[in-house]
Amino acid sequence: MTMIQTQLRDPKARESRATSEDAVTFVTRDVTVHYGTKKALDNVSLDINRNDVTALIGPSGCGKSTYLRCLNRMNDLIPGCRVSGRILLDGEDVYAKAMDVVHLRARVGMVFQKPNPFPKSIYENVAYGPRIHGIARDRTHLDEIVFTSLEKAGLLVEVKDRLQEPGTGLSGGQQQRLCIARAIAVQPEVILMDEPCSALDPIATAKIEELMDELRVNYSIVIVTHSMQQAARVSQRTGFFHLGVIVETGETEQIFTNPIDRRTQDYITGRFG
Amino acid sequence: MSSGSAATPNRQPATGAHPASAAVTASLKRRYAAERRFRLYGLLAVVFAGLSLAVLVFTIMRTGLPAFSTTMVRLPVSIAPQIIDPAGTRASQTLSGADYQKVIRDALGDLFPDVTTRGQRRELFSMLSPGGAYRLRDRVMADPALIGTRIEMLIPLADDIDQYAKGHIEASSRGIDTRISEDQAQWFARLKARGMIESVFNTTLFTAADSRSPELAGIWGALVGSFWTMAVTLVLSFPLAVGAAIYLEEFAPKNRWTQVIEVNINNLAAVPSIVFGLLGLAVFLNFFGLPRSAPLVGGMVLALITLPTIIIASRAALKAVPPSIREAALGVGASQLQCVFHHVVPLALPGMLTGTIIGMAQALGETAPLLMIGMVAFIVDIPSGPLDPATVMPVQIYLWSDSPERAFVERASAAIVILLGFLVLMNVLAVVLRKRFERKW
């Protein structure tokens, strides 16, 4: 506790960690998003550290999902959505002309709020990404990718005898882990999770949280969540969004134990939101 | 259900003191009565529609079913060599040009030696259909050894005799408005008494094209014409419409222009079909000089009519695919095209096919535009391709129902029965497809 506080009071210490080249995957500066004439995000600057779980919290409509969807340009699909500011993935501008959106999404995987497996077999669900990107050399390699992805997602034991059955026949929690397996089969650098547990029961949620902790060894994870307990349990860093601005970012422990901003304190103590 | 709603208004409120409760009780009766009235209107409408349909089907069936049988006379025919092949060469040209009519007439004349005057003999022979001569010719051409022998064969009777046999018209000698004379009726009775009259299944109806003589007319020509027309329509409209729907729904920018296009597609679906016929006449026939009366042009015109139907249905099917599937595909890095063709279109395909079948059923029943491009012509040949002159089922029905002969009215109804059968079949197919491939996610 004291260490964190010292770190906090010493701005240089935070700065040094945030800007050290290798430790950061996403650098975002002054990200502003408009939906038509409505401003959804206002000058958000945030860094996503490598091999950390970064949690984005805040009340509904605060712009945290919008921010998440800027990172792999899923907002491109929404008509009338304009993004300004800079988002750098390993130093490359995500919104630059030279950045191919297909390539970007191969590098930045996504897991959605509602489990959305394809209405195809479990195997096909996981194999789809590697297949369209041509990652697998041959059939055996593809099998290997599918098996390791399912294993990393903690699903292999449960489904290994029924890989040809439809993915939509699994339980909600299994479906969500299938979606995670599908995302990691493409071997992304970052996995974005948009409230991945909001449709799941506590047991399935616990499994996914456990999984996130294992996955962060190899990936950077950004998770949007409404559950502050979840943010506190799984993340190393937390960003608090409110009304389209980022109010506070920092080490998770610090945010939850000793928030700087009054609004953060009010939110985590349940006074609003 | 109804007993529950009927019991509720009678229930007394538990707390009489509650002021709102009295108001609720007072209005309850009126509210339930309104609901009951509405249910009754609905039920009456459904019953009325069902009865109308039953009457329609019953009328068509009653008129049309007799057309599936036809009346024939079994005659012993002596194939005299001196009439068929006087030279004895058995050359096919001689055989095909021979006077088979005379052979058959002689066969009938022999049965009635008492009929001697010219006028009476003409009346007697008019009981026979010219179709008998064609049948005999075909048999003799297939087997020339029959010449000189005596065979028994079924000779079709003229349409009026057929109608008389079925009890649709009366014999009378009053002259002008009579279709069959009392003499003919008497001869028919004599033939019948000798057991020579037979009612057989009307194969001509299913094998022949149109004819001036009702007993020789069939729907096969129109069916084949309809088939070619539908084939052209399907080949043109399905890929075009589905392509247009996919482009407009998935790729086109959503702006004022695409909105204008969308509104216009919806309006096109409501344009009277004869306007499309005029367009076909002006553009396909007059400008491009395509052949008149051809299924190719008919198919092109019908494709224009079905395009909006299929586009609208396909767009609805694409819209019904949940956005989560698109997000999932794009989220793993599929390109827009891969997302659409790997995931969205397969899920929308049952809906698209349903729309296509409904559109084709609509096209199959379309008459007006085809009149414009000449498919209303009297065509006795069975079309062998999309460029041959042809007619289609609904136009054939229109032509027959316009003819004065009672037998044509019967055949028109039979053709309606067959057309309705095809339409029901197509709609059932659409329903089955939808049920079979409906996916849940």
Identify the notable features of this structure and list them briefly.
heterodimer, A: 273 residues, alpha/beta, 25% strand, B: 441 residues, mainly alpha, three-stranded antiparallel beta sheet, 19 helices, elongated, disordered N terminus
Topology:
The complex is a heterodimer of chains A (273) and B (441).
Chain A: H1 2-9, H2 11-19, E1 24-35, E2 38-49, E3 53-57, H3 64-71, E4 81-89, E5 92-93, H4 101-107, E6 108-111, H5 122-133, H6 139-152, H7 156-159, H8 172-184, E7 190-194, H9 202-215, E8 220-224, H10 228-234, E9 237-242, E10 245-251, H11 252-257, H12 262-268
Parallel strand pairs in A: 3-8, 3-9, 6-7, 7-8
Antiparallel strand pairs in A: 1-2, 1-4, 4-5, 9-10
Chain B: H1 2-7, H2 19-64, E1 69-78, H3 81-84, H4 92-97, H5 100-111, H6 118-125, H7 131-142, E2 150-156, H8 159-165, H9 182-193, E3 197-201, H10 204-207, H11 220-251, H12 256-268, H13 273-287, H14 295-320, H15 323-331, H16 336-364, H17 368-372, H18 393-401, H19 406-437
Antiparallel strand pairs in B: 1-2, 1-3
Helix pairs in contact in B: 2-19, 5-7, 11-14, 11-16, 11-18, 13-14, 14-16, 15-16, 16-19, 18-19
Please, could you describe this protein's structure?
The complex is a heterodimer of chains A (273) and B (441). With 273 residues, chain A is an alpha/beta fold. Chain A has helices at 2-9, 11-19, 64-71, 101-107, 122-133, 139-152, 156-159, 172-184, 202-215, 228-234, 252-257, 262-268; strands at 24-35, 38-49, 53-57, 81-89, 92-93, 108-111, 190-194, 220-224, 237-242, 245-251. Chain A has 12 helices and 10 strands. A 6-stranded mixed β-sheet of chain A has the order 6-7-8-3-9-10, sandwiched between helices. In chain A, strands 2-1-4-5 form a 4-stranded antiparallel β-sheet, covered by helices on one side. In chain A, helix 5 (122-133) packs parallel to helix 8 (172-184) and helix 6 (139-152) packs across helix 8 (172-184). The radius of gyration of chain A is 19 Å and the shape is globular. Chain B is mainly α. Chain B is built from 19 helices and 3 strands. In chain B, strands 2-1-3 form a 3-stranded antiparallel β-sheet. Mean pLDDT of chain B is 88; it is low at 1-9. The interface between A and B is medium-sized, with 28 and 21 residues.
